[in-house]
Amino acid sequence: MHRSFFYRLSILLAFWFGMAMPIAQAEDGYDTWLRYPPVAEQKLLKAYQKQLAQIVVEGESPTMAAAKAELQRGLSGLLAKPIASGESKLSKHALVIGTPANSPLIASLNLTNRLAALGSEGYLLESTRINKREVIIIAANSDVGVLYGSFHFLRLLQTQQSLDKLSIASAPKLQHRVVNHWDNLNRLVERGYAGLSLWDWGTLPEHKSQRYKDYARINASLGINGTVINNVNSDPRVLSDQFLQKIAGLADAFRPYGIKLYLSINYNSPRAFGDLDTADPLDPRVQQWWKERTEKVYQYIPDFGGYLVKANSEGQPGPQDYKRNHADGANMLAAALKPYGGVVFWRAFVYSPDIGDRFRGSYDEFKPLDGKFADNVILQVKNGPIDFQPREPYSPLFSAMEKTNMMMEFQVTQEYFGFATHLAYQGPLFEESLRTETYAKGEGSTIGNILQGKTFNSKRTGMAAVINPGTDRNWTGHPFVQSSWYAFGRMAWDHDISAEAAAEEWLRMTFSNDKKFIDPVKNMMMASREAGVNYRSPLGLTHLYSQGDHYGPAPWTANLERPDWTAIYYHRAEKDGIGFDRTKTGSNAIAQYPSVLAKQYGDLSAVPEDLMLWFHHVSWDHKMKSGRTLWDELVHKYYEGVDQVRSMQREWDKLEGYIDAERFGQVKALLIVQERDAVIWRDSCVLYFQTFSGKAISAGYEKPKHDLEYYKALARTRYVPEPWHPASSSRVLK
Questions:
Q1: Does the annotation mark 443 as catalytic?
Q2: Does residue 321 have an active-site annotation?
Q3: Which domains does the chain have, with CATH numbers?
Q4: Which residue among 56, 97, 255, 648 sits deepest, i.e. has the most Cβ atoms within 10 Å of its Cβ?
Q5: For residue range 536-561, what is the model confidence (pLDDT) as tens digits?
Q6: Looking at residues 474-492, what average pLDDT do you find?
Q7: Lowest mean pLDDT among 655-659, 680-684, 712-716
Q8: 472: annotated active-site residue
Q9: Choosing from 27, 415, 472, 549, which is the catalytic residue?
Q10: Which runs of consecutive H residues, i.e. helices, occur in 134-283?
Q11: Percent above pLDDT 70 for the chain
């Protein structure tokens, strides 16, 4: 009999005995990793019950109230009994939470020096004694630090960790830990695959949905402290009084959870509002317009975080429209925000339509501006030089901008990984990126250390992720997309956390602590990203997807308005070989990297094979490390990706009964869809590239069921699982 039976039984018993715990609906994923079912391990449950008899909260603020409510909710569920709560009266085995400023009990412990080392958001979790009573404390310098510590404490119980001799000190390594939404004001979500936008503009600010609070709780549980609520292809109306009043209602809902609200802005807003005939950042009238409009924003939202800007990219307006550069544009906005402590996140996703190699675009535009940005500007750089592809080398901007604040931009929403129909845990991608050694200042110059400010001594640090949760009950469509949201938040707090550790935490909190479930599913998750790379774009291939939807394969795409929107621009398949030459004999993009890496990437015998075709045009007969030719290795990788998905199916089928039937059935069905799609990707790409190599698919591999023309026709008529935003041109790549 599996644990799902005991969980259902415990819920029923909770109702019978009148516990302070609501009866859950069927497990539909709404509670994400904040489920709080009773601890199943009885010995551990009894230990927790003994160690946690009371919650003592002395401070009074909306954030302290949120921490108290979360602990009451979590502990009542996990301990399978109500937990007493008091303010100052202390009993034995109490959980005491607070700051030295709001709690005399915490102040009595003389933690000032230890807390000072943890900054404004860090916290201590510790077993200690107060008034000769054994207690556990959650102490911090700020109320939001207490809230973060409370979620960490609950995570210990959710993952069945011992509380004996508890001693944990934790502080974030990055200042700005921000999620980005691509929500439009009509509630459609660009590259969103889980329903409509969360923000119901028609009922705001009067009605603040419970989902807004739960959204804030989910983010706060990871230490995320900011959200950009609207699309980077921004509608100017977002700065109107009508919408600012509504947005202020969202900010009110987020504030107790330490979530600052940011807005994506349209650079042409002064013109769009009809107030000016220009948006030139060096025009005093434009500067005054932004000063006054920003003042208006802060009147509605006193703790407003700042602006995110996509400028002069894919048709969006920007300072280059007026022969100004990105620093001119960013610094004008930074000046308007500076009196209020606001920041500008300036996206580096920029590439000229007439550039010879799009790979070079961002570096060539921004490197000359290093050191020219204001100190409250942070350059937001995608992890790779193109566009959230399944595998990319790191963006060379990270090792080049020594005098500029930078933050990473990852993508959780699976724009290029099968939307909400494929299982593709992104934790390994995040870890791979953050631990990449750049040698910018010698060894130890990893991307994570650069983002943290350790390599270049940056003043402002951060990490962002495009998440796009929607109105689907489980927030993300595919249940496992939640895992990438979780991994991002954990790694934004501490970039040394591994993808495997984050996956295990998420599984334990979201599904079960049973190792018979955890171990095989964790293995699935850790392999799932590489499977997606293999059946889409192995060995450094990229940009092979169909235009507009970005879902299925179309490696034959050609003859579009711009060459760099086609697939053939990137793979450059010919009879003599395949791949983009970015060495000295080609675009010389390798010169954008530090010399150690430029030498490695430029040497065909030394370049990592999973990046080979990013940097080299390689003969079909080139011998790979496996002993296979490039052609045979390419075929092998495509077939391996399908085999990996089929292995995931087999493993998942063995786990029926370990978790609730609803989520088990949904994942089972989606894996069937994923296997179908993986075969289409494999067959489309192998058959297409075969037209150039002229070589056979080796014996032993299953033969494609259809010819190439069938797959080309399928791409034209294929059903895409989610509608892409109708206002997005098929030319917009994001």
A1: no
A2: no
A3: 3-170 (3.30.379.10), 176-510 (3.20.20.80), 534-580+617-717 (3.90.1330.10)
A4: 97
A5: 999 999 999 998 899 999 999 999 98
A6: 98
A7: 712-716
A8: no
A9: 415
A10: 143-158, 210-220, 241-254, 269-272
A11: 94
